Structure to design on (284 residues):
């Protein structure tokens, strides 16, 4: 009786705690790339749950059917040869599961590395996202503006992020829009994302990069393109220009709030791509 009440108390406590939890952001996608990855995660969870259930059912069956019996002390069980069918099943099913998940993973990888489905014919918004200890710098070359620690993006438009770092290797990650990708000092990596609906999302550095790593985050706001264009116009009218001297101060280790500038650092400190690629950002 005591065990019964203890078990019910544990179950009730777990249910109560879980009802107060917020949904995982990776399972609350707001873009096509994130939706693809969320589908893969759920598929893996369901498949693994099925495997665990089957294994436990078989375990209980074996324990009950082949439990110890009251045989005589000199009882000798009959010699049994291996069963080819059982062995084939035990080996073949795991192989088939691995092959299936591998095919799904490869197909999904091609999808998330390419421009989002449905946006192939639209010109993407290019944003250079660079990090320094422990800040994020977002350069909009076509709009000729730059922000620090926050990112505004239009909805229903492909986004093409050019990632690199002014310090250690970091990782650009907006869980509700897609998976993480590394940003390194001597090369540029490209990440394709898109936001299907307006909203505010959390972004962060997902790779440990020193004592300030925990606060190496940024805010993301997705809005209709008309509002995005209004924001760009307002920035050009009100923000101060970004100078090379000011930028050199910004990339020094430390934490900052949200900042906005006209112009980008790409004019005097270009990204490490093309002729500027290689060690030390292409310096000779």
């Amino acid at each position: 009786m005591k065990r019964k009440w203890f078990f019910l108390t544990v179950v009730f406590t777990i249910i109560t705690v879980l009802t107060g939890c917020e949904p995982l952001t990776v399972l609350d996608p707001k873009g096509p790339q994130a939706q693809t990855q969320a589908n893969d995660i759920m598929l893996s969870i369901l498949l693994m749950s099925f495997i665990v259930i089957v294994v436990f059912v078989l375990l209980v069956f074996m324990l009950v059917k082949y439990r110890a019996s009251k045989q005589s002390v000199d009882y000798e069980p009959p010699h049994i040869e291996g069963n080819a069918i059982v062995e084939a099943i035990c080996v073949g099913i795991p192989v088939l599961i691995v092959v299936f998940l591998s095919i799904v993973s490869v197909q999904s990888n091609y999808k998330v590395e390419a421009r989002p489905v449905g946006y192939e014919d639209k010109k993407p918004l290019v944003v250079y996202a660079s990090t320094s200890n422990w800040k994020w710098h977002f350069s909009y070359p076509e709009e000729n503006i730059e922000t620090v620690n926050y990112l505004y993006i239009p909805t229903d438009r492909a986004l093409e992020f050019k990632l690199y770092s002014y310090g250690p290797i970091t990782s650009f990650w907006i869980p509700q829009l897609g998976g993480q990708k590394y940003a390194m000092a001597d090369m540029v990596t490209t990440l394709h994302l898109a936001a299907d609906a307006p909203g505010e999302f959390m972004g962060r550095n997902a790779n440990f990069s020193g004592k300030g790593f925990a606060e190496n985050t940024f805010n993301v706001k997705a809005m209709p393109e008309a509002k995005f264009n209004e924001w760009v116009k307002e920035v050009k009218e009100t923000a101060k220009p970004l100078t090379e001297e000011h930028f050199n101060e910004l990339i020094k280790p430390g934490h900052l709030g949200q900042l906005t500038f006209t112009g980008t650092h790409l004019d005097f400190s270009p990204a490490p791509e093309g002729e500027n690629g290689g060690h030390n950002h292409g310096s000779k």
